[in-house]
Structure formats: C-alpha cells, structure tokens
Amino acid sequence: MNLSFFDQFTSPHLLGIPLILLSMLIPALLLPSPDNRWITNRLSTLQSWLLHLITKQLMMPLNKKGHKWALILTSLMVFLLMTNLLGLLPYTFTPTTQLSMNMALAFPLWLATLLTGLRNQPTISLGHLLPEGTPTPLIPALIMIETTSLLIRPLALGVRLTANLTAGHLLIQLISTATTVLLPIMPAISILTTLILLLLTILEVAVAMIQAYVFVLLLSLYLQENI
C-alpha cells in the first residue's frame, strides 16, 4: 500500500518510451497562438493580460539591465504554472514532482545569474560573501557560511518545488482513498472526508500557483543581486 501511493510520481512509459517529454509539451499546446486579426477573442485577451501582469510583477524589482531576462522568466513562470495545475487533474502526471527536472531548471538559471554578476561586477558579487564591518576573527567562518548558502540556492529551489507538490499529491490521494473506503461503512464520515478533499484540492490549486511564482521570483531576486 505504501508503494502504491508513490506510483503516481513515476514517469509513465509507452512501449518503453518515457512520456514525460509529452507531458511537458502539453501546456504549450493549450496556449492559443497569436494571430494578425485586429479583434481577438476573450481567451487571447485574457492570455495577454495575464502575461502582462506576470511580466510586470517579475520585472518590478529589476533595473533595465535585468529586463532582457523578461522573456525567459515569464516563459518559465507560465510553464511551471500550467504544469502544476494540469498535474491536479485525474489520471495525469506532474513532471514538476521530479527533483531531477526541477534541478535541471534551477541550476542552469542560478548559474547564469551568478556568472552574470561575476562578469559585470565581480567586486560587488564577491563582496556579498563578506558583510561589511565583520570582525577579523570571524572572516573565514563567514566566508564559508556565505559560500555554502550561495551554493545551496539551486538545491533549495528544486527541493522546495518538489516537496510542496509531492506532499499535496500524497495528501489528496490519502484522503481520497479514505473517502472510498469509508463510503460503504460510514457514509456520514465519508461525506465529511469528501468536503475535506474538496477544500484540500482548492488549497492545492493555490499552492501550485504560489510555488510557480515563488520559484521564478527567487530567480529574479538572485538576478537582482548580480546586476
């Protein structure tokens, strides 16, 4: 029984071919493509408004040098948002519950922000490792602590997204299993657990959106430190 709870996090296969790439492409296929018409439909207008709002929120703490990152950060935000929300549907697979995928997203982008700072302002970037006014005996220890906290940032990004989504999916499966088991035995308790399951699903929708926003927001803050 314990192993079956984690079966939902294994990548599905068809004829020996992993379907995780297909599940990563589906969010992009659901977005309407722009056209040359002067009058657009409601879906295109809503999409444009949402993209404008996301870009504005992400670029607000950055200066003009960081605005060139708007396309990649907004695309990452939309990808994570669509993937997390589609993973809440029945009989679907959520690629963002895989730590390997989240690390593959977090590490290159974090490294890019770090290399950008070392190339443009190496003195200021290295100065973050040692706060101003530090006593001389504490300098080696603080440099080691700040270096460790700097290197652990991509791991924290990937683990945070993976842990929150995995915990939510496990809770939904546990409560839904309890609801199914209790239905013929104690219908009243089953109705109560169904209500809890509904509230938990609404909470997980919020968590899916918040975690996508937090992931990209932290990357933009790392970028702000290095530009």
UniProtKB/TrEMBL annotation:
It comes from the Eukaryota. PROSITE patterns: ATPASE_A. Keywords: ATP synthesis, CF(0), Hydrogen ion transport, Ion transport, Membrane, Mitochondrion, Mitochondrion inner membrane, Transmembrane, Transmembrane helix, Transport. Gene3D superfamilies: ATP synthase, F0 complex, subunit A. It holds the Pfam family ATP-synt_A. It is a multi-pass membrane protein. GO terms for molecular function: proton-transporting ATP synthase activity, rotational mechanism. InterPro entries: ATP_synth_F0_asu (IPR000568), ATP_synth_F0_asu_AS (IPR023011), ATP_synth_F0_asu_bact/mt (IPR045083), F0_ATP_A_sf (IPR035908). The chain crosses the membrane at residues 12-32, 69-93, 99-118, 170-189, 195-223. It catalyses: H(+)(in) = H(+)(out). GO terms for cellular component: mitochondrial inner membrane; proton-transporting ATP synthase complex. Its main location: mitochondrion. It is found in: Mitochondrion inner membrane. Component of the ATP synthase complex composed at least of ATP5F1A/subunit alpha, ATP5F1B/subunit beta, ATP5MC1/subunit c (homooctomer), MT-ATP6/subunit a, MT-ATP8/subunit 8, ATP5ME/subunit e, ATP5MF/subunit f, ATP5MG/subunit g, ATP5MK/subunit k, ATP5MJ/subunit j, ATP5F1C/subunit gamma, ATP5F1D/subunit delta, ATP5F1E/subunit epsilon, ATP5PF/subunit F6, ATP5PB/subunit b, ATP5PD/subunit d, ATP5PO/subunit OSCP. Belongs to the ATPase A chain family. This is ATP synthase subunit a.
